[in-house]
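User: Can you help me understand a structure? I only have the sequence.
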Amino acid sequence: MTDALMNRIKAQLVRHEGLRLKPYRCTAGKLTIGIGRNLEDRGITQKEAYAMLERDILNCEQLLIDEIPDIYNNLDEVRQSVLLNMCKSIPQSRFAPLREPCYLGIKGLLCFNNTLSFIAAGDWERAANGMLASKWAKQVGRRAIELAEMMRKGQ
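Assistant: Let's start by predicting it. Here is the structure, written out as tokens:
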């Protein structure tokens, strides 16, 4: 395909389909995003999923640097990965939907006041225990246990 044809069809499709950055239902009732991407029938590719994940991780890191730089920047990579993971945390249950969806994100993570204080002080044991004592931990189960152990041991 020539660049000219690609540019022509992209312009047409943006004009006809529009650009929507959040999921919506198209006129056929299909969950759609972007420029007419039918998520129900087509979904996304593995490459697209990993590209989205990378952007999400970089976004989470910037939020951590902006919100808690003195804590985040002084951690080793293992413990940074714990905070990144928690910042990205949107639990999904395979067995039953959660009664109250838990979206931790940066706002939820910043509510871990005591845990963040323990992390800042290098008190890994109390930081890990604080993580496990949270509502988030009950909702995400094994994920919280794994992340708390990483916080506790630094490995």
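Now, to help you interpret it: Residues 137 and 144 are 5 Å apart (CA to CA). The first strand starts at residue 20 and ends at 25. Let me know which part you'd like to focus on.
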